[in-house]
Automatic annotation (TrEMBL):
Keywords: Glycoprotein, Membrane, Transmembrane, Transmembrane helix
This protein's name: Tetraspanin
Top-rank lineage group of the source organism: Eukaryota
Family note: Belongs to the tetraspanin (TM4SF) family.
Source organism of the structure: Spheniscus mendiculus (Galapagos penguin)
Chloroplast found in the keyword field: no
Cellular localization per UniProt: Membrane
Length: 247
């Protein structure tokens, strides 16, 4: 009976580690896609040091889970106590780090409100100044998602236009409609857009556009994160049981 239980734990641990291996491969793939994607995310990531760092953290976490799942599978099948102990300690550190990140994200979620972004935009946005990281990032977001400001073009009424821009009144250049939504895309009618003709402007706010675009993925990511934490917890339990059962 004891041998049957040990064999059952061994294959269950192999199964859990296989899922960790797949999860790591998915994170690795998403991280690579965010960095090399040619449709606009690369510009946003490169312009914002925080996002740039986050993309590489995702890559590192994916590689780590990929390697960890592989080692866990090997440790379970070979019944190697050293590999199992290393696996347990390593996955415990990852589990605690992920749990801390989830708690911090929950605590600071109020910083992701519409009012917060509107206040920051009005305070720091410098229109077409691409040497400013904040402004360049916002311009990339507005161009990529075909949106304007947080709530709409009215967000820019309190922001002074550039002295050398004779056309630009309220709406920045990044809010003008383009034939292709990228920095290289041709304007539909730039002069008319900047002088205030609404049909040549992107009128919808970025907060609503981005929220609608990513709402499904946010819930999916949350469910995936809970699933990964549960898998890691069970993998640690099986690793310790298997470690103690190996003679």
């Amino acid at each position: 009976m004891e041998g049957d239980c040990l064999s059952c734990m061994k294959y269950l641990m192999f199964l859990f580690n296989f899922f960790i291996f797949l999860g790591g491969a998915c994170l690795l793939g998403v991280g690579i896609w965010v960095i090399v994607d040619p449709t606009g995310f690369r510009e946003i990531v490169a312009a914002n040091p925080l996002l740039f760092t986050g993309a590489y953290i995702m890559l590192a976490m994916g590689a780590m889970l990929f390697l960890l799942g592989f080692l866990g599978c090997c440790g379970a099948i070979r019944e190697n106590k050293c590999l199992l102990l290393f696996f347990f300690m390593f996955i415990l550190l990852i589990f605690l780090a992920e749990l801390s990140a989830a708690i911090l994200a929950f605590i600071f979620r109020e910083n992701l409100t519409r009012e917060f972004f509107t206040k920051e935009l009005k305070k720091h946005y410098l229109r077409n100044n691409d040497t400013d990281v904040f402004s360049s990032t916002w311009n990339s977001v507005m161009i990529t998602f075909a949106c304007c400001g947080v709530n709409g073009p009215e967000d820019f009424e309190a922001i002074p236009h550039l002295p050398y821009s004779s056309l630009e009144k309220v709406t920045p250049e990044a809010c003008c409609q383009r034939e292709l939504q990228s920095r290289e895309g041709m304007f539909v009618n730039k002069e008319a857009c900047l002088t205030g003709i609404e049909r040549f402007q992107n009128r919808q706010g970025c907060y609503t556009v981005i929220l609608n675009s990513f709402e499904t993925y946010v819930y999916l990511a949350g469910a995936l994160a809970i699933g990964v934490l549960a898998i890691e917890l069970f993998a640690m339990i099986f690793a310790m049981c298997l470690f103690r059962g190996i003679q």
